[in-house]
Each structure stands twice: as C-alpha cells, then as structure tokens.
Amino acid sequence: MTAKVLVAYGTTNGSTARIAETIAEVLTKEGLPAEARPAESVVSLLPYDAVVVGGGVYAGRWQKNARRFLRHHRRELSQRPLWLFSSGPLDASASERDIPPVPGVRRAMIRFDAREHITFGGCLEKGAKGFIAHRILESGKGGDFRDFPAIEAWAGRIANELLGAPQEERKG
C-alpha cells in the first residue's frame, strides 16, 4: 500500500505555501499521493500515513500556525513518519550551508522523533504583510531566495525513504 502524505505549512506571505506545494508535487510524481494544506485547515491526520510540516521563520520563531499544528496534532504525529522544514533566510545562505533549526523546531524534532529538518531560503516581495516585512523591503533586502532544485531533491529523498528503494531502482 502506498503511503498518503500530508504537507502542512504555516505561512504569513505565501512563500512557504509554494515550497509545500512543490514538495507535494514531487511526492505525487514519485508515486506517493500527497497534498499541501495550510496547517490551520487540517482537522485530523487519520487519512495520512506520513507528514511533512513547514513554517516560515520570523524573528527566530517558526510561524504560529505551524507551531499550533504540532501542538494540536501531537498524539497523531508521534505515530507517523515526520519531516520538518523551515523557510526564511533572505539570502543565499540556505543554499550554501546547512542552517540548524530554530530552538522551538529543534525541540519538536526531539519530541516527535522527526526524520529530518532542512532550512530553505525564503521569499519576501512587494505586498508582504507586516511592519518588519515592509522595513526589510524598504531597505532593499527582500527577494526570492527559494532554491527549487534543492526543495525538489529533498522531497525526492523523502519519497525514497517512504518507498524504501533508491530512485534509480524504482525507475529502472
């Protein structure tokens, strides 16, 4: 039986949603039914066999809906394979090196025995909400730093782990 995967995300300005959608698209393409959903819209994890949760990082904290998702679904999450991702650096640092999770995410990794965490670059463009976002944009430090090939590769590794075979063997 093929695992069904939920990719839940917490986002303020939408860039984490696009990362989650990309992960779900790759998992589906690899043969794992997957759907990306806003964390606050998920009522139950019963339909899912595995979960990926992502959140934007703001001032050293994961986005509030991602944090709430982990708290609300803590029992169900402890019974499923779990991967976590963060988005946020507004520079190329996430593509250049591994960025450790913020403290709250690190604690969640331990609590839920998460398989892996990765940080992807973020995106902050004109129209973003919030005072700090406006200040960052005014300073000229906004932009799109998401590395979609890296996001796709990470999703491919999740698929490989859930399907239990290296990608080359499955496609061969």
UniProtKB/TrEMBL annotation:
The biological process GO terms on file are: heme biosynthetic process
Which residue stretches, if any, does this entry annotate as coiled coil? none
Q: Name one GO molecular function term.
A: FMN binding
Q: Which residue numbers delimit the Flavodoxin-like domain?
A: 5-159
Q: Which Pfam families match?
A: Flavodoxin_5
Record the organism.
Answer: Streptomyces capitiformicae
Q: Which Gene3D superfamilies match?
A: 3.40.50.360
Designated name of the protein = Flavodoxin
